[in-house]
């Protein structure tokens, strides 16, 4: 049951979960029609945003449970950005061997993250905050806490590196414009989420955290659609 004082905060992550769910459904429909691995992994990324936001909604609304925080941390802090990068990798380097190696590696890392986070001890007292920090819940420097840095941080910079590489490749070629602009949108959305959620979590500002999540997802989805446009034939 939602406490009266929590509804004003809980509505923000609920909105973010709805936005991410709608976008995941639409992108998933594109994947079902076209069967492109890049759209499949971006659908997974949006679905992860939705699950993390829904877990946050429940945690803020009625108090966090260990399971809700594990879902929030696993899908929101650890795995999401790597799946964004995997999709970008498959978009920019369209070689089957790269796609297969990247996918298999990501799936193995996903299994590892699930095992580590789900088996990690939790400090229950830290779950009393509206927006608990990973270092407080798992303990600073623990494997489950560090996974967010080991997974998401390198993936974020690789995502930005892919944008730079894509822009350099474009070299004025209009056929690659949609791909580059779409990649820029994905990187901007991920940056918006990273900055807003980082500040919101550090200062326990739930509205900032959730609004930046919803806005970032919307920007990324626009980028997904733009990047996935068919290449224009030369005039």
Fill in the keyword field for this structure.
235 residues; Rhopdopsin 7-helix transmembrane proteins; 0% strand; mainly alpha
Number of domains as seen in the coordinates: 1
Task: Give me the secondary-structure category.
Answer: mainly alpha
Q: If helices are DSSP runs of H or I spanning 4 or more residues, what is the number of helices?
A: 9
Biggest sheet, open or closed, and with what strands and sense? none
Q: Tell me the CATH topology.
A: Rhopdopsin 7-helix transmembrane proteins
Low-pLDDT runs: 1-5
Nearest-integer average pLDDT = 85
Task: Give the name of the CATH superfamily.
Answer: Rhodopsin 7-helix transmembrane proteins
Strand portion, in percent?
A: under 5%
Alpha carbon gyration radius: 18 Å
Give the strand tally: 0
Describe the protein's architecture and organization.
The structure is a single chain. This protein is an all-alpha fold. It has a single domain, classed as Rhopdopsin 7-helix transmembrane proteins. Helix content is 79%, strand content 0%. The protein contains nine helices and no strands. Helix 2 packs antiparallel against helix 3 and helix 3 packs parallel to helix 7. The longest helix is centred in the N-terminal third of the chain and has 28 residues. 46% of the residues are buried.
